[in-house]
Amino acid sequence: MNTFDEILKSVLKTVEDNPTANIDELLAAKMAEFGVSAENQKLQQETSRYIDAFDEMNKKLQEAKEQGATRKQWIQDEIIAIADKHQLNDEQKEQLFNSLAQGFNDSINNSNTDK
């Protein structure tokens, strides 16, 4: 059985040797080579999608900051774009914003009581 360190070194070496290759394809091949279960391969793919989405949003936030927007403005713009994409009417948008505001407030209150 291979250790995590051995698998990681092997993956990194493969990526280093193939800098223009598709990372997802390389990972899939390495996971098959090391006998990673289908369930764990699916988890890796989901994790990669979350990381990619986070990276994309972070880039958008940095671009917005460079253009003078605050984080709050950027978040509001993103939420409005999502609401518009899903064709929410004004009442639905208000419900969405109220729910998000309540969730943020609850999160802040919970983090303050944990201290």
DSSP helix fraction: over 70%
The number of domains is 3
- Which class of secondary structure composition applies to the elements? mainly alpha
**Alpha-carbon distance between the two ends:** 43 Å
The global form is elongated
- What percent strand? under 5%
Write down how many β-strands occur, each being a DSSP E stretch of 2 or more residues.
0
Query: Number of helical segments?
Result: 5
**SSE order:** HHHHH
Give the biggest beta sheet.
none
What's the Cα radius of gyration? 21 Å
Report mean pLDDT, rounded to a whole number: 88
Oligomeric assembly: single chain
Give the low-confidence spans.
none
Structure description:
- The structure is a single chain.
- The chain has 115 residues and is mostly helical.
- It folds into three domains: 1-36; 37-69; 71-115.
- It is 81% helix and 0% strand.
- It contains five helices and no strands.
- α1 (4-17) crosses α2.
- It is elongated, with a radius of gyration of 21 Å.
- The N and C termini lie far apart (43 Å).
How would you summarize the topology of this molecule?
Layout: H1 4-17, H2 23-33, H3 38-66, H4 71-85, H5 90-113
Task: Give structural attributes.
115 residues; mainly alpha; 3 domains; elongated
Task: Give a short overview.
The chain is mostly helical.
